[in-house]
Amino acid sequence: MRLVLLFFTLITGLTSYAQSHKPCGTDVMMKMAIQNEPSLAKNLELFRLYTDSVAQNSELKNNTEIRLIPVVIHVMHTGGSNNISDEQIHDALRIINEDFRKLNADTSDVINEFQNIYADIEVEFKLAKLDPEGNCSKGITRTYTQLTNDAGENVKELVGWNPRMYLNIWVVSNIASGAGGYSYLPGSAPNNDGNAGIVIRASQFGSIGLSSSGNVSSRSMTHEIGHYLGLPHTWGGSNDNNLDENCDIDDGIEDTPNTKGSPQSCNAYQNSCGSLDNVHNFMDYSSCGKMYTEGQKTRMRSALDFGQPWHLAARNNLYTYENLMLTGTHPDYESLDCIANIDFESESPFTCSGQITDWKNLSSNYDLALSYLWTFEGGNPSSSSEENPSVSYENPGIYSVTLSIITTGGENSKIHENAIYVQDQSLVISAPSNKNFYSDPFSSTMDNFDDWYKSENLEGASWQWNSLGSNSNGGSIRIKSDDFLEPGPRKAYTATYDLSYVSAPCYMYYDYAYARKDGESSDQFQVQITDDCGQNWSTRVNKSTDNLTTVDANVYFSFNPIESMWKEQRVSLNPFVGSPKVQAAFIIEGSGGNFLYIDNIRFGVPNLSAEELNIANLNFKVSPNPNNGNASIEFNLLGREKIELILVDIIGNPIFHSELNYKAGQHQMDLNDLKPNLDPGIYYINYKIGSSFGTKQIIVL
Question: How many angstroms separate the CA atoms of 437 and 451, rounded?
Fold first, then answer.
C-alpha cells in the first residue's frame, strides 16, 4: 500500500516551480515528464510491480554479485573554470564508489540504531573506455554551450550516449529549476526513458575543483544515482521535505522509517512521524548523509534487473558482459591510451609587437602525452615542445598556430588559421570619432588605421559586412547564431582609439538591431573594452536574448530591420579616459538567433547624440572674413552626413541652396563657387544637419 501511495503521489501531486527550489529536482522533473508523455506512467507502474515482486523473492533479494555500471561524464561549459578538470571528475567517481560499497570514511558515524541495516550496495561505477561507435575514450566529453547556465533537458539534445549502454551524467553550471541536480526513476524519463541520466551542478560534483568537501556538495551525486536506480526521497514522492503531510506518504521501502524529512540539518535523533528518522540516509536532505539501507539496496539492485526490449534505457543491460566489453569497462578489457582530441587557445586572439602571449593546451581524451610540438608562424620561438608555451611576435600580422600531440594511441594535430592578430599600435584614431560601415571593415592584412579584426577559428558564420544600416548612409556589420556550426564566441575587434585628449564623461555609442528567430533562440552579447592590447578586458555591456531584442515578434526568416527597429546603446568609457590605446570587442555566442546588426559607432564622445556630436565637431568656419568674395568655407564631418547649405542676404533673400551627402573628413569650398561676384554687403550662410543647424555671418567688402 505504501508504494502504491508513493506512485499516486508521483503522478498526481504537481509541484509548482514558483515554490522555493530544493536541493534535488527529481520529483518536479518526473511529474512534468509524465504530464507531457502520459505513457511514462505505465513504465513507472511496471517498475513498481517488478520491485514489489523482487522484495518478496528471497533468492533475487539475496543476489550479491558485484555489478559494474559504465559511466560517461558530459562537461557542459563556456570555457574557464566551468570546464572542470579530469581530477574533479575522478574525485566524484571515487566518492560514489566508496558510498555504494560502504567504503566511505564516515561509516562509523552512523548511529547504532541503523548500523545493522547499513548496506553495501555492491554496485560500482567506471568511466567508459569506448564510445558508442567503439572509439577509444576516457569516458568524458566536453561541450561548449551557454545552455550550461540554464540547463535541463536542453543539454541532452547536444550530447548523449546510448542510455542502454551508459549512465549519462551532464555536469552543468546552473540548472534552470534552481535544483542542485536531478534524475528520473527507471522508466520515467522523457522520450520513453531515452533521456535517462543525471543532470548536476559542477558545484555539487565531487569534493574538489568547483565543488567542496561539504557533505551536501560531495554526496549530491550519490543521492541522484539513488533516484536513477529507483529510490524516492525517504519521505516519499515530493521535493518538499520537513512537511507534516509527508508522514502520510512514505517511500515504500520497509526499513526506512516514516519521516517528514530533515530540514537540511543533522539531528541524528530526529523523530518526526512517531519513530526515529534515518537522518544519515543519502536520500534525505540532511547535511550528514552517509548510508543506504538493506531495503534500499534491494530496490536499487532490482532496478538493475528491470527493463524491457522497448525501453530505451533499460538498466538491466548496463552490467552485462557484452555491454561491459562494448564500453571497455570489463576487467578483461585491455586498453591503450587514446589519440588526443586537440584543442588550444591563447589568452587573447590578438596581441602587440613584443608582448608575451601564453598558449594553453586544452586537448582531452588522453592520459599521458609522449610529446608536444607547437608551431608558431611569425613567433619567437617558432616552435616549442612545452605543454603550455609562451611566445612573442615582433612583426604585425595575422598568424597560424599548430599543435601536435603523440600518445601511445597515436598522433594527432590541429592547425588554427588566423589564430592570432599582432597589432601595429602605431595605427590609432584620435577620439572623438565616428565609424559608419560604408564598406567592409574587416581586413586580412590590417594595413589601415581603421581596419577591424574578427576571430574566425570556429566553424560556421562569423561577423560580416552588409549593405543594411541604421540610416541611409551606408551598411553595417551583422552575424546570426542560427548559422553557427560550432559553439563558441564570435568576436569583432574595433580599430584602436586614442583617448588622451578627451575628458570625462566620455562614452561610446552604437546602433543595434536584433530579433529572435523563435522560442529556442539563445544568444549572449557582450561589449568589452581593453587599453592594454587585450591583456585585460572590462565587460561594459552584457545582454541575453530577451534584453537584446529590438522587435517584439519572432522573425523566422531573414531579419532585415527598418529604421524603427534600431536602438541606440551608450557605453561609459570613463575608466579609459586619458589612455592612448583603447579598443572595443563586440562578442556574441549562442544558438538559434536571427541577425544582430551593429552600426554608427561613436567612440570617445561626450553625452551627445550622433547629430549633436557632428555639430559639436563640425568646426564650420569662413575665412578670411571680411573678404572680397573669395572666402573659403570649411567644415569637418565625423561620418557621412547630408548637409543643407543656404546663403542669404541681410534681409533673408536666398541666393544659394544645396542639399548634398558628404563623406567623413575635412571639406572645403569657395564662396565664389556658391555665388560668383557677390556685391559688397552682409550675408549669412546657414548650415543644417538633421534637426540641428547653425549660422555664420559673411562680410563682403
Answer: 11
